[in-house]
Amino acid sequence: MIFVTEDLGEKPQEEMVEDKRSPQLKHRIKQTPMKAVVDKTADKAAERGLRLVLVSSYRNSKTCPVHGEEMSFPLGSKTGLCPRGHWVHRDVAAVLNIMRRAAERLEPRYAEAVKRALSAVDVKALGEWSRSALEAERVSQTKRPAVLARASPMTPVHEGGGRGCR
Ligand SMILES: [Zn+2]
């Protein structure tokens, strides 16, 4: 088994909040220890003799995984428009581009398998996966109020009894 993730650098949260407008969302992202999660995963993988491949995080979610062209985001940050005229959800693009980058780092027999799988991906598949990603987001958003009620990131420190929210 091989794990693949983006090489996040030292301050991934700072980059992730750059294009986020909601202060609540910015706060939640900054409170999430992304680097610690990746480091922990690397430790656990090493303990078990599994491999963790880190790849560049450059433009994975902004590049069309079929055509390799830079996408624009005229309707918001979720879904990108390829210059060739089709839409791709940014998470779908990211996963496929990360796989392609990982393939460059693997031994030939693994690399070939990954490349063969990626070459089967077409615009139609991208459309179907993008719709599924949007649907999954809708489902998780309808469940979110319960999570917010338990631990609201916006509870002010002076009123919330010092939740440690800084
Ligand atoms: Zn495209």
Fold and architecture overview:
It is globular, with a radius of gyration of 18 Å. It is built from 6 helices and 4 strands, in the order βαααβββααα. Helix 4 runs antiparallel to helix 5. By secondary structure, the chain is mostly helical. The strands form 2 sheets. The chain has a two-stranded parallel ribbon with strand order 1-2. The relative contact order is 0.12. The protein folds into 2 domains: 56 residues, no CATH class; 109 residues, no CATH class. The protein binds zinc ion. Zinc ion binds next to loops. InterPro entries: Cas12f1-like_TNB. Keywords: DNA-binding. It comes from Pyrobaculum ferrireducens. GO terms for molecular function: DNA binding. This is Putative transposase.
Write the layout of secondary structure elements.
Blueprint: E1 2-6, H1 12-16, H2 23-31, H3 34-47, E2 51-55, E3 79-81, E4 87-89, H4 90-103, H5 108-119, H6 123-150
Parallel strand pairs: 1-2
Antiparallel strand pairs: 3-4
Helix pairs in contact: 4-5, 4-6
This protein binds zinc ion.
Zinc ion binds next to loops.
